[in-house]
Amino acid sequence: TVEVTVNPTALGFTAVAKNKNDVVTVPTGYTVQIGARLGDPITGSAAAYKNDGTDTGFANRIGDHGDALFWFGLSTTGTRDETSSTRGLIVQNHENINQQYLHTAGATSPGGVRPEAEALKEIECHGVSVVEYSEGASRAWTFSSTSTFNRRITPNTPMVFNGPVKGSDLIKTPYSPTGVAGRGTINNCANGYTPWGTLLTCEENWAGYFRRSGDNAARTAKELTALSRYGVTSSTGSYGWSTVVAADTANTTFRRWDARATGASALADYRNEPNQFGWVVEIDPYAPTSTPRKRTALGRLGHEGCWPGKFVAGTKPAWYMGDDSRREYLYKFVSNTAWVATDATATDRLAIGDKYLDAGTLYVAKFAADGTGSWIALVFGQNGITAASAVYPFADQADVLVNARLAADVVGATPMDRPEWTAVNPVTGEVYLTLTNNNAALRPLNGTDAANPRHYNDPYGTAGTAQYGNPNGHIIRIKETSTESLTFTWDIFAFGAGADLDATNINLSGLTADNDFSSPDGCWFGRATNASGLVKPIMWLQTDDGAYTDVTNCMMLAAQPGTVGDGGARTITNTGTGGATATQATRIGAAPGASLKRFLVGPVECEITGVDSTPDGRTLFVGIQHPGENGTPAAPSSHWPDSQATGTAGATIRPRSAIVIITKNDGGVVGL
Ligand code: FEO
Ligand code: CA
Ligand code: CA
Ligand code: CA
Q1: Where is the region Disordered (predicted)?
Q2: Element spanning 587, H or E
């Protein structure tokens, strides 16, 4: 093991060039290993994955679209050990599916009645996986396909509701007439953690899975307002699962995806099924038979992530949450209970979750032009959130939490350019929020504000197609006195842009060929200290399919950011269609220069999402999501990870989402 400098001043690798190769590219001096992939058996009761569309039994396999992941250490005897860097559990979200590769010749009857077996496979490819990993000789990492910790959580896994919404009429369903339980979790995107050893998984774009059609007359005006605000408006549901009615006489697995108020027949009333989703869900990975708990005090959104601020004994802890849609908001939940450090080692972990996560205050962020901001409480009876609200007549706090977006509308929160991951600098406590992009339709030239300041046309993407708005996104950061603070200061850490774009008004962070990027999404700070004494953490930044995919595959960058206010005020000139211009004042952090470098480029048509390391920082785990997402079963557009070794693979080999394991050849900390 090489020594690393305490508080290192520079990233220690040569930037990777942008590229469109069908491999994961990392800097010279690093090695990529492939971890668990879509379909790999993990419970000892599934056959080897054939990857030809005939595989079944996905409740016993790795799901599709691996997303956020988190390392939970295990001792050599298989008990919780947060310091372990050689054996642990990786808990990963499975956000969505590449439907075409799951079936022999693509989906059967995609717009009609779906075959039961195909629909079940698609449902079970969603959710969360828990898999045990360990490091062997010569730094070779393997995962166990039979560990007793291994687990799949799917949209069918029983769960319970905790917090203020438990028992509310709004979540009563045929499955749980008393509104205390539900089934499963879906579209799990980013995540968060607790210091007591549990994972927080977040339900993001759940709304689209539901069919909702033809029942307006049976709905109240309130219900219709809420359904519209949350986008539960599909007339089919994403994959048509509710069409599998013939085989679903008990109305359990498939019919529930039709959120009809009353059917034409004796079909059960699933009007509240969409209210079962949009939550933060706590999972205890060390207790494989435990029932996950939906923490309703944190509100119902299109939850991207739920990252905690610094835990300080005697101070109420907070979790920061993006709501990923264009013009949605940034939230924070502050517990009612001040942090007691000894709770970190309690053994009834979900009971500790009850203590901190079931009672508290949900706030939404309002950004002011002068570089300050405030958190506005979403509490029934306060700030206009009442039965008399013209936006939506709230009944009680459960109604406020189920319809948190509407409460945030009432208080005048700041709409953002698609709030994705939150990350917290573990040294300074500053909170970073990726704003992946926005478009002219939802945020026109005159719709900018200081926190969402750019409007321009990006020449990349589909040739000849104008992309006005903020197609490359930015990363905003906030500084608070403590997690309990109701005010903050903010600036913009970096703006995405091609290095060749206008440096005065578009490439505002002075990005170069070594660090230019678009559509920031995943964001995570490495651990504050490790065995080598590292105290200045690296921030890892991951990109989603954006306006840059004609130039390069998606990527991951490393940064060593400064602090809020290290730059200053600035006024830029925006340009809209027809050459119209408008000025906008904003607050921009110091240009990152060489403290921001591209570390990794992924394979064709992937998104890079999900990152964690072992506590010593010497092994980095990264999620490669949906390679080849635009291909067909007959002609896949990526063959990764089979293509990793040579850049090519058989022309009909199907791509698979997978975890990559990255180590530095000299044994040191990844990135330094
Ligand atoms: Fe699932 Fe917001 O990305
Ligand atoms: Ca994401
Ligand atoms: Ca995204
Ligand atoms: Ca994507």
Answers
A1: 627-649
A2: strand 581-588
Ligand in closest contact with the CA of 328: 1
Measured CA to CA, the distance from residue 31 to residue 439 in angstroms comes to 38
- pLDDT tens digit sequence for 368-413: 999 999 999 999 999 999 999 999 999 999 999 999 999 999 999 9
Ligand 1 within 6 A of CB of 328: no
Question: Which residue is listed with tokens 């310091």?
Answer: 83
* Tokens 């008393």 found at: 178
pLDDT digits (tens, 9 = 90+) for 5-50: 566 778 999 999 999 999 999 999 999 999 999 999 999 999 999 9
Residue 302 Cα: closest atom of ligand 1: 2
Check if the beta carbon of residue 547 is closer than 8 Å to that of residue 519: yes
Distances (CA, A) of 123 to 6, 69, 118, 276: 47, 20, 9, 16
Using the atom order of ligand 1, give the atom closest to the CA of residue 304.
2
Tell me which residues have their CB within 5 A of the ion that is ligand 2: 189, 521
Quickly state the pLDDT bin for 264 (edges 50, 70, 90).
Answer: very low
> Is the CB–ligand 1 distance for residue 258 below 6 Å?
no
Residue 296's Cβ-side half-sphere holds a number of Cα atoms within 13 Å equal to 26
Q: Is the CB of 420 under 6 A from ligand 1?
A: yes
CA-nearest residue, atom 3 of ligand 1 = 189
* Nearest-angstrom CA–CA distance, 458 and 477: 24
Ligand 1 atom with minimal separation from the 436 CA: 2
Mean pLDDT, rounded, for 133-155? 98
> Which of these, 667, 539, 617, lies nearest to 85 by C-alpha position?
617
pLDDT digits (tens, 9 = 90+) for 503-536: 999 999 999 999 999 999 999 999 777 666 777 7
Domain residue limits, the chain: 30-206+277-664
Helix (H) or strand (E) holding 121, with range, is helix 116-124
Does the pTM surpass 0.90? The reply is yes
Contact 581, 527 (CB under 8 A): no
CATH 2.120.10.30 is the classification of domain 30-206+277-664: yes
Ligand 1 contact, 189 CB (< 6 A): yes
CB of residue 324 inside a 6 A radius of ligand 1: yes
Is the CB–ligand 1 distance for residue 204 below 6 Å? yes
